[in-house]
Amino acid sequence: MPPPTRPPSPVEPEESRVTDPVTADLSSVHPGGGAPSKPGPPLATPWPGATNPTQEESRPVERGDSIGRYVVLHEVGRGGMGVVYAAYDAELDRKVAIKVLRGFTGNAARDHDRQARLLREAQAMARVDHPNVLSVFDVGTFRDQVFVAMAFVDGTTLSGYIRDATHPWRQTLDLFYAAGRGLAAAHAVGLVHRDFKPANVLLARDGRVFVTDFGLARLTGHEEPMSLPSPVEELRAGDSPKTGLQAEMTREGAVVGTPTYMAPEQHVGRQADARSDQFSFCAALYWALWRKRPFEPSMLAAAAFRRFGGASTVPQRVAQGGAAALDQLSVIEEPPRDVRVPARVRRAIMRGLSLDPEERFPNMEALLDQLSLERRQLQARWAAAGAGFLLVAGTAGLVVQQKAAAKAELCSGAPARLQGKWDPQVDAAMKTAFVRVAKDRGAVMSERASRALADYADRWAAGFRDACEATQIRKEVDQRMMELRMLCLDRRLKELDALTHLFQAPDEAMVEKSVEAISNLSSVRQCHELESLHLKGRPDDPTRSRAVAQVESQLAQIRALKAAGRLAQAAPLAQAAVGAAAPLGFRPLEAEARLLMGYLEHSDPQAAERDLSKAFYLAEAGHDDYTKVEAATRLVYQLKDKYDRAMEWAQHARSGIDRVGGSPDLEVGLLNNVSTVHLQAAHYAEAVSAVQQGLAVVDMASGRDFHRFNLLANLGAAYMYMGDRERAVAAMREALSAMTDLRGPDHPVQIGTLRNMSLLLAQQGDYRSALDAANKAVKIARTRLGKESLTLGDSLDSVGTVLLMDRHPAEALERFQEGAAIKAKAAGPDSQDVAYSLDGVGQALVALGRPKEALPHLEKASKALTGDPEQLAETQFHLAQALVASRADAARARSLALQARSGFIAANVPDKALEVSRWLAEVRR
Fold first, then answer.
1. In a 3-state reduction of DSSP, which class is residue 303?
2. Which residue, 4, 47, 170, 358, has fewest beta-carbon neighbours within 10 Å?
3. CA distances, 829 to each of 427, 835, 862, 863 (Å)
4. CB 146 within 8 A of CB 118
5. Which long-range contacts (CB under 8 A, 24 or more apart) does 269-274 make?
6. Among 144-148, 310-314, 701-705, the least confident range
7. Start-end of H helices in 744-831
8. What is the pLDDT of residue 40?
9. Distance CA 243, CA 444 (A)
10. How far lies 423's CA from each of 319, 428, 456, in Å?
11. Which of these, 457, 466, 468, lies nearest to 410 by C-alpha position?
12. Best CA proximity match to 6, nearest among 18, 22, 30, 27
């Protein structure tokens, strides 16, 4: 049976992915071996404080209980007002979160009030349809208590994200910007949050951001205090003839919110409005960026009472805080200067923290406009750039336009630039070519490729328009910066053009990897990174600049060929580009050429390492942070078998990512490669951590869907090695789902994960599902890779393994024999690949009561397995068992068993070593 391998990173040589799937293949693990699964999440306990409950109400909510139509999976969190459960909605086949109000308190009015507030939150959130506001699906009752069914978010709170580690300011601002959009959407339908804070923002593992808990205190108990004490905090719901959103749940004079983030007007019980949420948002963002609070709550409260209510109205508990000053500077502290955040961002936050609501931004949209990506990047100190000019058509792709009336037309020119690169005619030609080459499969893949290309073209067009408007209309950046942005976008357009032309004359392999090739197109987002573009610069000499542009066109063609899997065609072009770039003395250009050369030298590891290292140092000298990070990230994978060196390059890559202020495109690739290195080194917990971080940002890297599959495959492998079969299977199922969405249900890259999952399911006793997974791997291999591929032989071994575990040795023997025959033809009869199948043949024969027939197969397998110590120990043990069963050579059997036990100990497989010891003890009896 095949040996364990570690999953490669997404930058593995493309042409090898069909025959060497991008996932760990662990199907050689001995049937029934491995550590037991870890226990699942804890179940809920009875609610504290409940009085006079019925027997059913006092029973803990357990896995499998029904809340409405939802089946409880496990508890997620609990706090002052209730409990949240993960649950399954069978009708719509989705996982949801169920929020249930706490049990009875003995005060009927208070109970009714709490239920009304929960209903109020549900109705409030249901009114907002926005990707950054948590969706509410349903409201109902459970054991006479209200529950709300919401979208399930697998992740953390924004508060936890901020506290767990220090993050680049741009990355933090991106998350807050998304949350701000959710707030703005709520304001647009007349809703005010009143308690915005990081703890009320959910950050999904895939990077999505959701504002939640409108009108309701947090359910988890580990966050900040919920509100200032007030004897008149809320009216009873029963005091109002209205219900839900119509009920005035908080009267004038009530204090509701979190003091650390509350606006001054909320401290004195004034009606909160959208500008109050703006203040809370800025207070939270201040803390996230500078890791300190902008004000002392007691000082803010005192200032609020003096400003809005008169000095005589200051409560004693607030006055004791010692805050007597009324001016803004006495209450709101200036941000520290030791954290590099652009001045525009500082000014926007401080304005949002104005004590007087009238001095804040008129709405959240105005604040967000100041915090948007382009606004944030304007503070880079560019060198002044002459008298200004419009870039001439050609290398910059723009026609000189000097008349003001031509500006609007210039900024709407993206569709014309895309003509012939991506338009309806190109789309139709691609689809025709795909169908001609791959028939029905080509039709399916052409639709997927068409959607992906349209999305990339839309992003390119938006970047083109924004780059133009930033200079020509909004006057935010000078024309030199527009030129650099347009040069970057022009290169992306050439790369798109090269790829779509390849797609019009594809082979079947290119059809299969078309969507992945599109996902590997250079990021348009990098053309928005003004500071990076400014530092790289451009040769001032026109002749030299034209020569640079010519090499850049060659590099765009090489990237397209590489993405499409045409590596043999790309390699000589890359070598020529290196030669052409070197004499020009423009280091970013030479760095990129060396980088591509390093990618393409996968068959010569030393040459690849040499060129990738040169690319890194050239990029460093040329201030090209993106190429530097890409080179270091590739070196992490290139040196995956050399743990210390690989992790050293990971540090270099991390520093580069931090320097550019964070980049999802770069970060997810690095984390995937780091997880692969940890798996190679058997650092499974570290691998899980790297994968989880990667999954948290993968959706931020536009178009990088293939990363999700790789990360999940790595996660499944790590959990499998850790013996956590339940989590491993869940991760593998999710990986297969991700790859099905990307490439369809029968792509060869899924084979390794299917085989691993089949073994895990068999170890859990689910032989039917295990056999289905293994047989699917066989079907894909036979159909897509051919009847003589090694992968087909390995997949047949997986079927044999499951059948053997399920006590069907005769059927297992047939599969192992078929696998051995295929491998002998493909790799030679004495190869190590054949040895894995022969080991299975021997096990099946022993199980059939034919141990003497098993001996020659096991003997031959043991001689070929010298390069795989763990599998050699397996085969030695099987041979020992066959010798004893055939009553042949007891002394040799004992010797082989002892060797096997030593091999398992050396390979850190204590369970197997213990199994051998028990067998030896049994034999001695």
1. helix
2. 358
3. 48, 9, 14, 12
4. yes
5. 269/230, 270/308, 272/192, 272/194, 273/192, 273/357, 274/183, 274/187, 274/192, 274/363, 274/364
6. 310-314
7. 751-763, 767-780, 790-805, 809-827
8. 29
9. 51
10. 68, 9, 12
11. 468
12. 22
Residues 177-221 have pLDDT tens digits of 999 999 998 888 778 888 899 988 988 877 789 988 764 433 333
CA 387 to chain centre: 45
Tens-place pLDDT, residues 775-784: 999 999 998 8
CA distance 38 to 720: 11
Name the E strands within 840-897. Answer: none
Q: Answer whether 434's CB lies under 8 Å from 445's CB.
A: yes
Q: How confident is the model at residue 819 (pLDDT cuts 50, 70, 90)?
A: very high
Query: Could you tell me if 116 and 180 are in contact, meaning their C-beta atoms sit under 8 angstroms apart?
Result: no
The answer to whether 11 and 596 are in contact (CB under 8 A) is no
Residues β-bridged to residue 157 = 202
Report which of 718, 640, 715 is spatially closest to residue 674, judged by C-alpha positions: 640
Fold of 55-151: Phosphorylase Kinase; domain 1 (3.30.200)
Rounded CA-CA distance 662/372 in Å is 15
Q: How far apart are the C-alpha atoms of 733 and 731, rounded to whole Å?
A: 5
- CATH 1.25.40.10 assigned to 807-925: yes
What token pair was written down for 368?
């967000």
Give the C-alpha separation, 908 to 885, whole Å: 28
Distance, CA of 454 to CA of 458 (rounded, Å) = 6
Please report, for the chain, the start and end positions of each structural domain, with discontinuous segments joined by +.
Answer: 55-151, 162-232+253-377, 400-529, 807-925
Q: What residues contact residue 909 under an 8 Å CB cut-off, 6+ apart?
A: 33, 870, 873
DSSP 533-564: HHHH---SSHHHHHHHHHHHHHHHHHHHHHHT
CA distances from 223 to 1, 125, 220 (A): 51, 21, 7
Residue type, 862: S
- Of the candidates 458, 425, 421, 429, the one whose C-alpha atom is nearest the C-alpha of residue 446 is 429
Nearest to 3 by CA among 875, 871, 920: 871
Residues ≥6 apart with Cβ < 8 Å to 683: none
Indicate which residue of 20, 25, 111, 195 is catalytic: 195
- 122 Cα distance to chain centroid: 29
**Torsions phi, psi of 629, nearest 5?**
-65, -40
Label residue 579 exposed, middle or buried (CB < 10 Å: 0-12, 13-18, 19+). exposed
Region 246-266: what's the mean pLDDT?
Answer: 60
Active-site residue, 195 included: yes
Amino acid at 388: G
Q: Angle of helix 767-780 relative to helix 751-763, nearest 10 degrees?
A: 160
Specify the residue for token string 């594809």.
506
User: What whole-number distance in Å separates Cα of residue 322 and Cα of residue 377?
Assistant: 40
What 3-state DSSP class applies to 67? Answer: strand
Whole-number Å distance between alpha carbons of 140 and 539: 67
Q: List beta partners, residue 690.
A: none
Sorted by sequence, the CB contacts under 8 Å of residue 598 that are 6+ apart come out as 608, 609, 610, 611, 612, 615, 631, 634, 638
What does the alpha-carbon distance between residue 192 and residue 180 come to, in Å, rounded to a whole number? 13
- For 189-220, letters b (16+ CB in 10 Å) and e give eebbbbbbbbbbbbbbbebbbbbbbbbbbbbe
pTM above 0.85, yes or no: no
Q: Which among 276, 277, 97 is positioned nearest to 183, based on CA atoms?
A: 277
**Is the domain 162-232+253-377 a CATH 1.10.510.10 member?**
yes
pLDDT tens, position by position, 345-377: 888 999 999 998 999 999 999 899 888 753 444
Cα–Cα distance measured from residue 109 to residue 489, given in angstroms and rounded to the nearest whole number: 63
Q: How many residues does the chain have?
A: 925
pLDDT beyond 60 at 702: no
Contact 342, 294 (CB under 8 A): no
